[in-house]
Design a protein that fits this description.
Elements: H1 3-11, E1 19-21, E2 23-24, E3 28-29, E4 34-38, E5 45-50, H2 54-71, H3 76-92, H4 94-105, H5 109-129, E6 136-138, E7 145-153, E8 156-160, H6 168-180, E9 183-187, H7 193-209, E10 217-220, H8 224-232, E11 238-242, H9 245-257, E12 261-265, E13 270-274, H10 280-292, E14 302-308, H11 312-324, H12 344-359, E15 363-366, H13 373-376, E16 389-392, H14 401-404, E17 411-417, H15 420-428, E18 432-433, E19 435-439, H16 443-450, E20 459-462, E21 474-475, E22 478-479, E23 486-487, E24 496-504
Parallel strand pairs: 1-5, 8-9, 8-11, 9-10, 11-12, 13-14, 13-19, 14-17, 16-17, 19-20
Antiparallel strand pairs: 2-3, 2-10, 4-5, 6-7, 7-24, 15-16, 18-22, 21-23
The structure holds nicotinamide-adenine-dinucleotide.
The site of nicotinamide-adenine-dinucleotide has 31 residues, from helix 8 and helix 9.
Length: 519
């Protein structure tokens, strides 16, 4: 293993050059298929991880249920104290864990550290929440009666997560789930098992120090077989799934068919609209970050850009200048802005998307190819580096695959409009509904954009790019993005089971609606 990778793994107490156990449910095991963690920057194999065998998955589910039965009776503010300790433990390893995210996923270091910070932030939020998960007292129409709406812990929550946020998505779910009194079982992406192991070591250390069963925050690494086993299991009360639309569509149906709860956070196809009165000195860098940050591998990455005719030439020339200044590099190096795609397969997806654009006659303004490995030099020649691409398709038709498909790579399609209504129709004209952004100084435009005839996405920003959400508001998307909401806002209400409790304090037993049923 390279010195750099060894140092990052050692700092997180992950053994080097060994087959790692990829299952935790109070103790570490792992005897299933072998997963390989590969560095996207160099192609180096970072570790081999033994995933969950079917028996181990079964045992993990069983232990999760047992852990839930203990954890649900711990008062919520006491659970909050455990979350506070998890927050402290995570913050003390923020830089090391952020470096591992960068090493294993490929995003640049500041984004890796930012992702861990997001986990810290949501843990803070959930500490407060643990004293504020209030039910309600509702007025009854019957004398001497009260109605309570009571939130109780739900049971076992499984979190199936995508490769691109290998820490934060689990954090959003774990923090709310623990505050609510559930046991959580995590299956991370098969290509980021080290992040799963490192986070679970930190969290389980806190649980063990507090005498809480480790299976309150269990881990099962594995590929789609393990995922399918979780999704089908009656022992899982809620499946929180983050990933592609294709897999999410299947997961949603399977969970629904057994009447489980499901929370879906699927793909986005996010647009930015720039009006002629926009401040371009802010809008151009925001589009640049949105389209190129994380090498276009955020669910909220900017994929479609709609420019008002009056500013389109100037906007594109300024954006192209920023693209031209971009150099690919080692994501762990502080000066790097552009890291690799996560896998070799993603490079194929990128090349196919560019080929499709060329076939329909799109003008490729910049990019459109892989970086020449020889020019990058060793060890980056083993990495998955592609050129961020700006394309202008010949027509703006949201029925066309070049516009309506989420390509998980830095490919930005540009269209030119004359009226805001036209651009809003394009924004809404795709199946996905995650994030959207309007740049304007005119309050009338803002009113249209955030109102009933405005953007139909879950995230509707003004003078803020499509990516980089904070944890305070509920995060998620509409339409084929799955309608799920995680993180802040009212998202916690999905992690509990609600009971309506009507209590009669009187000496009579009247029926509601004045119904008489004489005996
Ligand atoms: P993916 O759908 O390939 O995998 C997601 C998870 O599902 C992985 O853990 C995978 O092992 C598991 N899985 C695969 N097949 C399964 C099956 N049959 N049953 C159960 N589980 C199965 O997604 P990915 O490539 O890792 O991630 C990229 C996608 O995730 C993009 O579409 C992106 O937009 C989306 N995403 C969405 C959000 C959001 O909040 N909306 C956030 C991050 C990523």
């Amino acid at each position: 293993l390279s010195t750099r990778a060894s140092a990052i793994l050692s700092a997180l107490d992950i053994p080097i050059d060994k087959e790692l156990a990829g299952v935790y449910h109070g103790e570490w095991t792992g005897s299933g298929d072998l997963l390989e963690s590969k560095c996207p920057t160099t192609g180096e194999v970072l570790a081999r991880v033994r995933s969950a065998s079917p028996e181990e998955l079964h045992a993990a589910l069983h232990k999760s249920r047992e852990a839930y039965q203990v954890f649900r009776s711990i008062p919520a503010p006491k659970r909050g104290e455990i979350l506070r300790q998890i927050r402290v433990a995570l913050a003390s390893k923020r830089d090391e864990l952020g470096a591992l995210v960068s090493l294993e996923m490929g995003k640049i270091r500041t984004e890796g550290v930012g992702e861990v910070q997001e986990f810290v932030d949501i843990a803070d939020y959930a500490v407060g929440l643990s004293r504020m998960m209030n039910g309600r007292l509702v007025a009854s129409e019957r004398p001497g009666h009260s109605i309570l709406e009571v939130p109780n812990p739900l049971g076992v929550v499984a979190v199936l997560s995508a490769f691109n946020f290998p820490v934060a998505v689990y954090g959003w779910n774990l923090a709310l789930s623990l505050a609510a009194g559930n046991a959580t079982l995590w299956k991370p992406s098969p290509s980021t098992p080290l992040c799963g192991i490192a986070v679970t070591k930190i969290v389980s250390g806190v649980l063990e120090r507090n005498g809480v069963p480790g299976a309150v925050a269990g881990l099962v690494t594995g590929d789609k077989d393990v995922g399918a086993g979780i999704v089908e299991s009656q022992d899982v009360d809620m499946v929180s799934f983050t990933g592609s639309e294709a897999v999410g569509r299947h997961v949603g149906k399977v969970v629904q068919s057994r009447f489980g709860k499901v929370l879906l956070e699927l793909g986005g196809n996010n647009a930015v609209i720039v009006m002629p009165d926009a401040d371009l000195s802010l809008a151009v860098p925001a589009v640049f970050f949105g389209a190129v940050g994380t090498a276009g591998q955020r669910c909220t990455s900017t994929r479609r850009l709609f420019l008002h005719r009056a500013i389109a030439p100037e906007f594109l020339s300024r954006l192209r200048a920023l693209y031209a200044s971009l150099l690919p590099g080692d994501p762990l190096a502080p000066s790097t802005l552009l890291g690799p795609l996560h896998t070799r397969a993603a490079v194929g997806v990128y090349s196919d998307a560019v080929a499709r654009l060329q076939t329909v006659g799109a003008e490729i303004l910049t990019g459109g190819a892989r970086y020449d490995g020889a020019a990058l030099g060793s060890p980056l020649d083993g990495g998955n580096f592609v050129q961020p691409t700006i394309a202008v398709p010949p027509t703006v038709d949201m029925g066309d695959a070049v516009w309506r498909t989420e390509t998980f790579a830095p490919v930005l399609c540009v269209g030119v409009f004359d009226a805001l209504e036209e651009a809003i129709a394009w924004n809404n004209g795709v199946p996905q509904g995650l994030s959207s952004s309007l740049w304007t100084r005119d309050l009338r435009n803002v009113g249209k954009w955030i109102g009933p005839a405005g953007s139909d996405a879950g995230i509707v920003n003004v003078n803020v790019g499509t990516s980089g959400a904070e944890i305070g508001a509920a995060f998620g998307g509409n339409k084929t993005t799955g309608w799920g909401r995680e993180s802040g806002g009212d998202a916690w209400k999905q992690y509990v089971r609600w009971s309506a409790c009507t209590i009669n304090f009187s000496d009579e037993a009247p029926l509601a609606q004045g119904v008489q049923f004489p005996s």
